[in-house]
Inverse folding.
């Protein structure tokens, strides 16, 4: 693991620990934090299964692609972009029907390969999502 990978992992850990430390004290109603419209990094996350660091927009800053488990039959993907030390979720999608989600580089394009199982029939469906510069978009849809 090189220094940039360790730095990215430390950034993710800070994103998880810092809100807990800030919000763990006693809060009176007048001091209560206001809800934000943006999705947080930890929203709906039970367990992170894969964290990949990659510079998606070639700006010199590595972004994080996080694949995580949500509910019993769901997995999600979040793309977290960094501006200095502040992370922002710029893409999020949850897949159902016991999915297997993998991140790969295919022809130098960040790609998600999603294999879902239809519970009623046992049939497997494979979907491919490619990074278009701003989001992962499905191929062929």
């Amino acid at each position: 693991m090189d220094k940039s990978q360790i730095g990215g992992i430390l950034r993710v850990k800070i994103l998880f620990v810092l809100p807990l430390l800030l919000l763990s004290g006693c809060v009176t109603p007048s001091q209560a934090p206001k809800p934000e419209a943006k999705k947080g990094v930890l929203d709906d996350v039970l367990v992170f299964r894969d964290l990949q660091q990659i510079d998606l927009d070639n700006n010199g800053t590595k972004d994080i692609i996080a694949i995580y488990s949500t509910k019993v039959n769901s997995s999600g993907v979040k793309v977290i972009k960094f501006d200095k030390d502040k992370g922002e979720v710029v893409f999020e999608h949850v897949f159902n029907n016991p999915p297997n989600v993998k991140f790969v580089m295919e022809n130098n394009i960040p790609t998600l390969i999603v294999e879902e199982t239809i519970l009623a029939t046992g049939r497997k469906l494979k979907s491919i999502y490619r990074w278009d510069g701003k989001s992962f978009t499905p191929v062929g849809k």
Helices lie at 3-23. The radius of gyration is 17 Å. Residues 3-23 form the longest helix (21 residues).
